[in-house]
Amino acid sequence: MLGARLFRALALTVISLAAWSCANDLSKNLDGKSCNANHECSSGYQCEEATLLCIRVGADAGPGSDAGACPEDGPSCSGKCTKLDSDPKNCGGCGATCSAPAHGVAVCLDGACNFACPDRAACGDVCADLQSDPENCGACGRSCSAPVDGDARCVAGKCEITCAAGRESCGDRCVDLESDPQNCGECENVCAPGLVCSGGECKTTCASTLSNCNGACLDVSSSASHCGDCDTACPSPNHGSALCSKSSCDFSCADGFEKCGSSCVDTQHSPSNCGECRHTCDAPANGSATCDDGKSGRLATWVTPSAAAPA
Question: What are the residue ranges spanned by the domains of the chain?
Answer without folding.
Answer: 28-114
